[in-house]
């Protein structure tokens, strides 16, 4: 669920939670947190951007982040997921995402990760 650019964890998101599902929730969360930033950047250059284009770019950023921390995107661990969200928070800040948006989304994903073994 989203509310004015904020993604909220739903109880069904935690059903059958695995590291792969947690990774996918990170992508979903990061997408919602950065969607407006991407759209505005594209508009500055006179280009339109739809959600599927943004989701593809966000997924690429997350995959690159896994590589940067020497993590396995396809077989993530709780430890690599924690490192990924820390790095994504730093990336968001460098893109000018407001701190309250970063902290909100980080807390949502920390709730997900707290449910992983």
Structure description:
The protein has 117 residues and is mostly helical. It has one domain. It is built from four helices and two strands, in the order E-E-H-H-H-H. It has helices at 19-44, 51-68, 78-94, 99-114; strands at 2-3, 6-7. The chain has a two-stranded antiparallel sheet. Helix 1 runs parallel beside helix 3. It is globular, with a radius of gyration of 14 Å. The two termini are 25 Å apart.
Strand portion: under 5%
General shape: globular
Question: For the report, how would you describe the main beta sheet?
Answer: 2 strands, antiparallel
Average pLDDT confidence is: 89
Intertermini distance = 25 Å
Number of domain modules: 1
Structure classification: mainly alpha
Uncertain stretches of 5 or more adjacent residues: none
| Cα Rg | 14 Å
Topology record:
Layout: E1 2-3, E2 6-7, H1 19-44, H2 51-68, H3 78-94, H4 99-114
Antiparallel strand pairs: 1-2
Notable characteristics:
two-stranded antiparallel sheet; 117 residues; mainly alpha
Short description:
Helices cover 66% and strands 3% of the residues. The protein is mainly α and 117 residues long.
């Amino acid at each position: 669920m989203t509310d004015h650019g904020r993604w909220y964890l739903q109880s069904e998101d935690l059903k059958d939670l695995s590291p792969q599902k947690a990774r996918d929730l990170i992508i979903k969360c990061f997408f919602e947190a950065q969607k407006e930033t991407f759209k505005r950047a594209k508009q500055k250059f006179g280009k339109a951007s739809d959600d599927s284009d943004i989701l593809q770019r966000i997924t690429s950023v997350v995959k690159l982040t896994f590589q940067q921390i020497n993590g396995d995107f396809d077989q993530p661990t709780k430890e690599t997921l924690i490192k990924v969200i820390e790095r994504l928070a730093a990336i968001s800040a460098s893109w000018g995402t407001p701190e309250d948006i970063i902290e909100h989304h980080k807390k949502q994903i920390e709730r997900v990760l707290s449910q992983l073994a």
